[in-house]
Amino acid sequence: MLSIKVGIGYDVHALVAERSLILGGVEIPHERGLLGHSDADVLVHAIMDALLGALALGDIGGHFPDHDPKYRGISSLALLEHVMKLIESQGYRVGNLDSIVMAERPKLAPFISKMRFNLSRTMHIEEACVSVKATTTERLGFVGREEGIAAQAIVSLKKVEEE
């Protein structure tokens, strides 16, 4: 069995009025937020899919179906905690995370430090192992038209007993 595994995740949510904008567990002041069954934290959703994918454990839709009322409005960080228990029960821990949020607005730089803190705490790794970046799409596509926000993540997992 391989001692290092890698997973990639991607997620998109539409921007809508009368919703909070939550990214990396941080509420960000903005006139619109992301539409979804949970808090619609697109960054955390991409990270969860990367974690699950690394161990071929399915995707977040299979673990947290959007038709289940118990997940309505739930914090995505709480869902990430559950995914981390699955990862750890398989004998793995996170080596590192690299992620990127694609949004035309708002500017995310002032919030990245808090996102990294939230993610490192929830994923049981040092902040130095958590990268969160932000970019625009130069006004191209649905992100550029401010119709939604997308995120990508890649994670490495290490077998615990081989350390």
TrEMBL record:
Pfam families: YgbB (PF02542)
EC number: 4.6.1.12
Feature type site, description Transition state stabilizer: 37, 136
Gene3D superfamilies: 2-C-methyl-D-erythritol 2,4-cyclodiphosphate synthase (3.30.1330.50)
Biological pathway: Isoprenoid biosynthesis; isopentenyl diphosphate biosynthesis via DXP pathway; isopentenyl diphosphate from 1-deoxy-D-xylulose 5-phosphate: step 4/6
2-C-methyl-D-erythritol 2,4-cyclodiphosphate synthase domain mapped to chain residues: 4-157
Cofactor(s) the protein requires to work: a divalent metal cation
CDD domains reported in the protein's UniProt record: MECDP_synthase
GO MF term list: 2-C-methyl-D-erythritol 2,4-cyclodiphosphate synthase activity; metal ion binding
Signal peptide: none
Main function: Involved in the biosynthesis of isopentenyl diphosphate (IPP) and dimethylallyl diphosphate (DMAPP), two major building blocks of isoprenoid compounds. Catalyzes the conversion of 4-diphosphocytidyl-2-C-methyl-D-erythritol 2-phosphate (CDP-ME2P) to 2-C-methyl-D-erythritol 2,4-cyclodiphosphate (ME-CPP) with a corresponding release of cytidine 5-monophosphate (CMP).
Name of the protein in its database record: 2-C-methyl-D-erythritol 2,4-cyclodiphosphate synthase
Organism per entry: Desulfosporosinus lacus DSM 15449
Gene name of the record: ispF
